[in-house]
Write a structure and sequence with these properties.
Layout lengths: L3 H6 L4 E3 L9 H7 L4 E4 L2 H6 L7 E4 L2 H17 L4 H8 L4 H14 L3
Parallel strand pairs: 1-2, 2-3
Length: 111
């Protein structure tokens, strides 16, 4: 069986506290592992997990980020946000899709 220590060691959400990070590859990585992202509403998180994507909890202040973390925990516990949703959302950051977007941008560019 699973012990209490093993249960506590299982991550439920990913907390991204940076206000300065420009992109943060750890966010798509966490999503691919099934973890919703809690972070500040700044350029990096806005680019990866914008409002309305269904797997992000963004805040503007320290108090709000604590509230968003509690909301994320609650949503995971009651099934409003699932690991599968997070994983599915993260697929847009795969190498295959990134390369396809890159190739498309080359064809749109006039030399």
């Amino acid at each position: 069986g699973v012990t209490g220590v093993q249960t506590c060691a299982l991550p439920i959400l990913f907390f991204f506290p940076s206000k300065m990070d420009s992109f943060g590859l750890v966010m798509p990585e966490a999503l691919s592992m099934g973890l919703p992202v809690v972070g500040f509403d700044t350029n990096g998180p806005q680019d990866v997990v914008p409002h309305g994507c269904g797997v992000s909890y963004l805040a503007n202040t320290d108090k709000e980020i604590a509230e968003q973390a509690a909301l994320a925990w609650y949503d995971v516990q009651n099934g409003t946000v699932t690991g599968q949703q997070c994983h599915d959302y993260a697929q847009q950051f795969s190498w295959e899709i990134a390369m396809e977007k890159f190739k498309q941008s080359l064809f749109r560019t006039k030399f």
